[in-house]
Specification:
Elements: H1 2-8, E1 18-20, E2 36-40, E3 54-56, H2 58-68, E4 73-77, H3 84-93, E5 100-104, H4 116-125, H5 139-145
Parallel strand pairs: 4-5
Antiparallel strand pairs: 1-2, 2-3
Helix pairs in contact: 2-3
C-alpha cells in the first residue's frame, strides 16, 4: 500500500513499479499470469491534466467499465479472445454484472472501403462529402441511402 501511494504521488519513475493481480503465474492462459492492472504514466489526461500519475491497464478497466455501464454485449476483435477469461475473472471476483463477450474478425466487403483511416483521407481530399456520403458503407451513409434501423 505504501508503494502504491508513492506511485500515486509521483515518487517513482515510469516502469519502475506496477500493481499486479495475484492470480496464478503458472496459469495455462498467459493473460491470467499475474497481470499488470495499474502502471505509472506521466502523460497529461485530456480532462484532468497531470492530476493522475497511476492509470489502469485496458484489460482491467475494460470489463469494469462495461459492467458499471450495463453494457449487454461487449464486441471485440479476435485478438481479445484470449483475454475473455481474464475479463470474466475480474468481474466474478469483484462480484459485478457480466456482459456477454463476442469476438469477431475483420469485415471486408468487395469493392467497398470500411477503413476509418482511409475514409477520413477521402473526406479530407474532398472525394466524398463526409461520413454520411451515401457511397460509403458507414451507418450514416447507409441511412442517407434510405436504409432504416
Amino acid at each position: 500500500m505504501r508503494l502504491f501511494s508513492e506511485m500515486q504521488e509521483g515518487k517513482h519513475p515510469e516502469a519502475k513499479y506496477t500493481l499486479r493481480l495475484k492470480i496464478d503465474c503458472e496459469h495455462p492462459n498467459p493473460t491470467l499470469r499475474d497481470p499488470v492492472i495499474y502502471r505509472v504514466l506521466y502523460q497529461p489526461h485530456p480532462r484532468s491534466g497531470y492530476k493522475w500519475k497511476v492509470y489502469p491497464m485496458y484489460d482491467f478497466a475494460h470489463c469494469i467499465c462495461d459492467s458499471l455501464e450495463n453494457i449487454t454485449h461487449s464486441l471485440c476483435t479476435l485478438e481479445f479472445e484470449i483475454r475473455r477469461e481474464l475479463y470474466y475473472w475480474i468481474l466474478t471476483n469483484l462480484n459485478l454484472y457480466k456482459p456477454f463477450v463476442y469476438e469477431f474478425s475483420r469485415l471486408n466487403v468487395s469493392n467497398n472501403m470500411l477503413s476509418k483511416r482511409k475514409i477520413a483521407k477521402l473526406i479530407e481530399m474532398g472525394i466524398v462529402s463526409g461520413w454520411d456520403d451515401p457511397r460509403l458503407l458507414t451507418l450514416a451513409g447507409l441511412r442517407r441511402r434510405g436504409y432504416t434501423a
